[in-house]
Design a protein that fits this description.
- The chain has 330 residues and is α/β, with parallel strands linked by helices.
- It folds into two domains: 3-129 and 257-325, Bordetella uptake gene, domain 1 (D-Maltodextrin-Binding Protein, domain 2, 3-Layer(aba) Sandwich); 133-230, Periplasmic binding protein-like II (D-Maltodextrin-Binding Protein, domain 2).
- The protein has 14 helices and eleven strands.
- It has helices at 3-20, 23-29, 49-65, 80-88, 100-103, 106-109, 117-120, 146-156, 170-182, 194-202, 213-221, 269-283, 286-294, 304-325, and strands spanning 38-42, 69-73, 94-99, 121-131, 133-137, 161-164, 187-190, 208-211, 225-230, 256-264, 298-299.
- The strands form two sheets. It has a six-stranded mixed β-sheet. A five-stranded mixed β-sheet has the order 7-6-8-5-9.
- The longest helix is centred in the C-terminal third of the chain and has 22 residues, at 304-325.
- The radius of gyration is 21 Å and the shape is elongated.
- The chain starts with a helix and ends in a 5-residue tail after the last helix.
Length: 330
């Protein structure tokens, strides 16, 4: 067994890649790779937000690697079917584009999950982050700002309902966290997805929800929804005019949705290092940043360490909510 030799060589290759910080050095660390097309597995359907992000990277990655890049949609279980396929890939040419739930709390919500994000998936790069927006029907009450709205919600108690795209989604956990921080008590009604949540709100079944910015803004422009505040710690470049809920006095409340690239831990470390560097560099290109912004994301393009830290922090924060509220996946 040349195990020590191997791991030292991997470490050396990693060190070379990190130190030089150039694609050339990274290529030198992975001679002969890639030998075939790179596959990006996405756990959501074509045209979905994760799919659009993956396709934004496919072309620049193909140019950099000199091999085709294929986006493969493996849909189901809130992205967990795709995540499991990435975790089990052993061909050295498969990575995945994930939403935060798949890389953080999936296992806490469902201990029977066939993969463990912490053990089976290696972080490559955090791509984009976005807050959610607390919204209400346009005609509802005269509450002008977030403070007044939350006061009205407290008075309404459990006579108000909130909608989410399902149990254990960020929209669900975020609202449970908001309930814990503010003393509001709306009742949870899950729907198949965000568009159905918006429709139910217009139909009068829901009084509040946390929605992605693009959907919230489109409904506000149509005069159908009112935007109350964003869930980021400060204001967001995606909705610069909208105050954060923290500004409205909601303490210790920060919530973002994000997407990221990760690889199977079985993929050789030098290959992962090269991909991490390449993906991060692509995410920071002005034209890619602009595309991601149109898709509703503030571009990040972090290191693998940056993503690992984010995964740990979010797993801990959301894990607390899951435990305190006794939330279980359906």
């Amino acid at each position: 067994m040349h195990h020590h030799f191997l791991s030292r060589r991997h470490l050396l290759a990693l060190a070379v890649t990190t130190a030089c910080g150039t694609a050339a050095a990274a290529s030198a660390a992975t001679p002969g790779w890639p030998t075939k097309p790179l596959r990006i597995i996405v756990g959501f359907p074509p045209g979905s937000s994760p799919d659009l992000t993956a396709r934004t990277f496919a072309e620049p990655l193909a140019q950099a690697l000199g091999q085709p890049v294929i986006v493969d949609n493996k849909v189901g279980a809130g992205g967990n079917i795709g995540a499991d396929a990435v975790a089990k890939a052993r061909d050295g040419h498969t990575i995945g584009l994930f939403i935060n739930g798949n890389l953080t709390i999936a296992r806490l919500l469902n201990p029977q999950l066939p993969y463990d994000p912490a053990r089976d998936l290696a972080p490559l790069s955090l791509i984009g982050v976005s807050p959610l927006v607390l919204v209400a029907p346009a005609g509802q009450g005269a509450a002008a700002d977030a403070r007044a709205f939350l006061q009205a919600a407290r008075q309404a108690g459990s006579s108000w309902n909130y909608g989410t795209p399902g149990v254990g989604t960020v929209g669900h956990l975020g609202m449970e966290l908001l309930k814990a921080r503010t003393g509001i008590a709306p009742v949870h009604i899950p729907y198949p997805g965000y568009p159905q949540v918006a429709t139910a709100m217009l139909g009068g079944q829901l009084q509040l929800a946390l929605l992605p910015p693009a959907l919230a803004q489109a409904q506000e422009r149509a005069g159908k929804l009112r935007l109350i505040g964003v869930t980021s710690a400060g204001r967001s470049a995606l909705l610069p005019g909208l105050p954060s809920l923290a500004e409205a006095g909601v303490r210790d409340f920060q919530l973002e949705i994000w997407n990221a690239f990760a690889a199977p831990t079985a993929m050789p470390a030098p290959v992962r290092a090269r991909l991490s560097q390449l993906i991060g560099e692509i995410a920071r290109r002005p034209e890619v940043r602009a595309k991601l912004f149109q898709q509703g994301w503030q571009a990040v393009g972090s290191s693998s360490e940056g993503l690992a830290n984010r995964m740990q922090a979010d797993t801990a924060a959301m894990g607390r909510v899951i435990r305190e509220q006794g939330i279980r996946a359906e």
